[in-house]
Amino acid sequence: MTTGSLTAGRTRFRLPRKQIPVLATLALLLVMYAIGVSQYTAFSNVQVIFNVFIDNGFLLVVAVGMTFVILTGGIDLSVGSVVAMTAMVSAALLQDGMPAPLVLVIALLIGPTLGLLMGCAIHFFEIQPFIVTLAGMFFARGMCTFISGASIPITDGFWTRMSQERIGNPQGNFVSISVLIAFVVVCIAAYTLAYTRLGRNVYAIGGNPQSALLMGLPVGRTRIAVYTISGLCSAIGGILLSFYTLSGAPLIAVGMELDVIAAVVIGGTVLTGGAGYVFGTVLGVLVLGVIQTLITFDGSLSSWWTKIVIGGLLFAFILLQRLIGIRYK
Amino acid sequence: MNDTTSRYRTMIGHRLFWPAAVLFVMLAANTIYRPGFLSIELKDGHLYGTPIDILRLSAPLILVALGMTLVISTGGIDLSVGSLCAISGAIACMYISKQPDQNSLGVVLTALAMAMGIALVLGAWNGVLVAVIGIQPIIATLILMVAGRGLAQLITQGQIITINSEPFRAIGLGHLLTLPLAIFIALAAALLVAAFTRRTALGMIVESVGGNAEASRLAGIRSGRVVFLTYVLSAGCAAIAGFMMTANVSSADGNAVGLWVELDAILAVVIGGTSLAGGRFFLGGTIIGALIIQTLTTTVYAMDISPQTSLLFKAVVVIAVCLIQAPAFRARFRRRRRNVPPPATIADKPKEQVPA
């Protein structure tokens, strides 16, 4: 309300206030890329960008699902474990000789089912999302080790083909199929959020669940749908990860939920819900990927600098959101 | 008969009833499975036995959960405690490992003071982010959670630092009056926090800030300062817990120390009956919650199940306890039971709505 009266004063130059965090992320990404190009000659190779996508395709898909949840003002801590569980289940089933299409269907059903259950617990029993998804995280991670304590290799023909297939141009630049799948997911999610009734409901609930309910929007159904979507995205992410690593390991993707939340926040989505874009999340994932690439290129910096830099960036972006005056709790 | 039912109802309704019942059932199940579970024996002047082990191993979790209880009761949350454990342990071990005489008490005390000081500064950073800048607690502490792991690894240079210092080792494994020292440290911290919050007005002030920060500010309470204090306290508790964890193994590993302890601590607080929405806290419940979690872990080890699978049990316990405590679930359940004898219970219904 106060922001409205503030903006009214300066109509001359109106950067769309809502888009400032996304634009800042874009600027940061460009600056980081420019630094990389100026420091290392090999950085300007197009393949470097493609590699960022190849290495972070599964993260991107999971982050898209998390964007939905955070937009409604919730949080989903179970994503990392669900990714691991999906990879683990598909590896175990393939090892038992089940045909690949059936495995795909089963693996893709587990995540949404768990998400649906968590959404129901959150909506019907009014338990905090934080606690419910924490239990989901424990459950999925426990299932991983329950299936097998050691990592299971995948030798299935379909999986190896998906993993090794390179789609590229004659210059030798290529992307993997995972990247294309990730792109399809991003496009569908962006369309859903921007142009469908479900997307509008998500924003409305994030803005103010009380008024959304009074307006007659299906708050409960949307909330459950959002956690199911996040579960589905985690499942797809798990499949992509198993394409990438060609194995299922019980301790893979530990702590991934934090990377995902960081990517969503750096991408400009407000944690209290109601404001943010899928495009911002894509940028957030790219920022994380480019940081990793820069640190790899440098060679002298140790891996822990990644965490420190991500922490610093998180701080900077939250401060930025605060300064712009986007409504916080 | 009416008297006994009402007494029965107040007992069931007591905040500590369900957590205590869960703990009791778990201990009983263990004793049935392994009759020697509860036996304690005296060896070389020290008490040994599974119950003592559970107490000793739950000491760090109790400490972290104590700080977390106060933070949560202000309506916040502190995700950075695990990283703070790692940082404080790393600093203490780093300093001790550089000294010529690792067994000197002075060296250990200096190391502890230094690590504690830095942990308090980091806690103050959290406090400033939440109370002064007004960032959402979950995200403000997420920053230190992510960056703190990096800092801990930076301090140890990615190595596991091993030390050989008797006084430091005593924090985790020492004995006092036949019982492990760690139990007394946790107990002292719990009593101190309880005395400051329940014997003075501080506890009520914390709860009022959690209930409604703006209203309590208008009532003359410096809400910001109270919130800030809880984060500093939480960091202090985490630092002591970090000392215990590193002292237990006489080494500091920036990656592993205190990993996921924040989740366990939040769990302990919630099991103890403190609402994540803030406004109420139960220190006794938190301690029982921490004991439940440690008993669960010990049970899983004792039953020869893979330690990682214990997460599965943890998930079941979390869901069960949360469902039991969720008002919506209880109301649903009660309504179903009420359909059988309708007249007696209708009068009770408004009474139960009142305290909320």
From TrEMBL, chain A:
<keyword id="KW-1133">Transmembrane helix</keyword>
<feature type="transmembrane region" description="Helical">
    <location>
        <begin position="174"/>
        <end position="194"/>
    </location>
</feature>
<dbReference type="Pfam" id="PF02653">
    <property type="entry name" value="BPD_transp_2"/>
</dbReference>
<keyword id="KW-1003">Cell membrane</keyword>
<dbReference type="InterPro" id="IPR001851">
    <property type="entry name" value="ABC_transp_permease"/>
</dbReference>
<feature type="transmembrane region" description="Helical">
    <location>
        <begin position="132"/>
        <end position="154"/>
    </location>
</feature>
<feature type="transmembrane region" description="Helical">
    <location>
        <begin position="251"/>
        <end position="271"/>
    </location>
</feature>
<keyword id="KW-0472">Membrane</keyword>
<feature type="transmembrane region" description="Helical">
    <location>
        <begin position="20"/>
        <end position="42"/>
    </location>
</feature>
<keyword id="KW-0812">Transmembrane</keyword>
<feature type="transmembrane region" description="Helical">
    <location>
        <begin position="224"/>
        <end position="245"/>
    </location>
</feature>
<protein>
    <submittedName>
        <fullName>Sugar ABC transporter permease YjfF</fullName>
    </submittedName>
</protein>
<feature type="transmembrane region" description="Helical">
    <location>
        <begin position="100"/>
        <end position="125"/>
    </location>
</feature>
<feature type="transmembrane region" description="Helical">
    <location>
        <begin position="48"/>
        <end position="70"/>
    </location>
</feature>
<feature type="transmembrane region" description="Helical">
    <location>
        <begin position="303"/>
        <end position="324"/>
    </location>
</feature>
UniProtKB/TrEMBL annotation, chain B:
<protein>
    <submittedName>
        <fullName>ABC transporter permease</fullName>
    </submittedName>
</protein>
<dbReference type="Pfam" id="PF02653">
    <property type="entry name" value="BPD_transp_2"/>
</dbReference>
<keyword id="KW-1133">Transmembrane helix</keyword>
<keyword id="KW-0472">Membrane</keyword>
<keyword id="KW-1003">Cell membrane</keyword>
<keyword id="KW-0812">Transmembrane</keyword>
<feature type="transmembrane region" description="Helical">
    <location>
        <begin position="129"/>
        <end position="152"/>
    </location>
</feature>
<dbReference type="InterPro" id="IPR001851">
    <property type="entry name" value="ABC_transp_permease"/>
</dbReference>
<feature type="transmembrane region" description="Helical">
    <location>
        <begin position="172"/>
        <end position="196"/>
    </location>
</feature>
<feature type="transmembrane region" description="Helical">
    <location>
        <begin position="54"/>
        <end position="72"/>
    </location>
</feature>
<feature type="transmembrane region" description="Helical">
    <location>
        <begin position="103"/>
        <end position="122"/>
    </location>
</feature>
<feature type="transmembrane region" description="Helical">
    <location>
        <begin position="226"/>
        <end position="245"/>
    </location>
</feature>
<feature type="transmembrane region" description="Helical">
    <location>
        <begin position="79"/>
        <end position="97"/>
    </location>
</feature>
<feature type="transmembrane region" description="Helical">
    <location>
        <begin position="257"/>
        <end position="274"/>
    </location>
</feature>
<feature type="transmembrane region" description="Helical">
    <location>
        <begin position="16"/>
        <end position="34"/>
    </location>
</feature>
<feature type="transmembrane region" description="Helical">
    <location>
        <begin position="281"/>
        <end position="303"/>
    </location>
</feature>
<feature type="transmembrane region" description="Helical">
    <location>
        <begin position="309"/>
        <end position="329"/>
    </location>
</feature>
